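Issue 218. Parser rejects a valid record. Input:
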Amino acid sequence: MLSYDLAVEDKYEPWRAWLEDQLALLPQRKADAFAENLWHDQNFWSHNIELAAGAALRDLGFTVEYERRWGTLTPDWTVTHASGEPVALVEVLTHSPSKDMYSRMKAWHELSQRVRKIPVRIVLTVAERHDRPLEPPDARTAKNIAKDLRSWLMSPIHRTSYDLHGYTFRVMLDPRTGRPMEAPYMGAALEAPSQMARVVSAQALAEGIKEKVRKYRALAQEAGLPLIVAAGSHKFTGLKVRQFDDLLAGANTVSIQFGYGDTFIHDPVEIQPGKPPRWAMPPDLAGVLWVDHDNFPSFATQWRPNPEALLPAPAGFTATR
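Output the parser choked on:
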């Protein structure tokens, strides 16, 4: 699911309406700048979580100001009482895939769109490697692959695999009948490598939170305000609040996500079953407000207070849902 799909397909209209409602709450100049970058794949999810964090703070009864300037810094949200008095600083952090991952996914997506134009209702997969990631074809190679696949699939010679331009394309068979599976639309379907197979860990998110605290610590101390990080994750990362809770508790659990046909684990992290990692929040951090994206445009938040915080968060944060 790339941002283009969300921008144009009818079923995502409620999501687009929610975005318009949230942007309408920002000052016009800032809303225009925000909207200009919103629909880029690398920005879309982080921008949604940023807006969702502001909506969550409003739902808790706070008034919020977007990117209020504090000297040379502009925290994402300044939380205030109705009187306008600041009560907390909130910086938003989204755990996102790398730019390289977006590039690979987009390249496979473009090949899938070419294959979809072949008028044969069949489902294909790509044979992956076990020792390294399978790089997607460039635009010229993708065009040639689609052309050659079209010739083969529309010929009277039926095969179960096709070796083309350095890639092996396999026909998916129905395990019950042994016959080729039918695509759900009037064209061939390519189930490309997902690029998402990896160990799911909150360690990188924790490092990002530490960096946010380092950047805003002096400001929070000078202003005498608690510092909060609103954290969320891009859907492609597979990261949920339970992995963050495991890291806080030092729980001995391992989560791995795969897509269909994935055979290679990307960006592996060290797994220590007998000594799982544990992370303690820095004392200058009042807590982490987790923004759950499972039901966007609806969302839920979960509050994880720091019991060792030098400045605790306002009482309203205990009402998160």
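Fixed in the parser; the record now loads. The chain has a mean pLDDT of 89.
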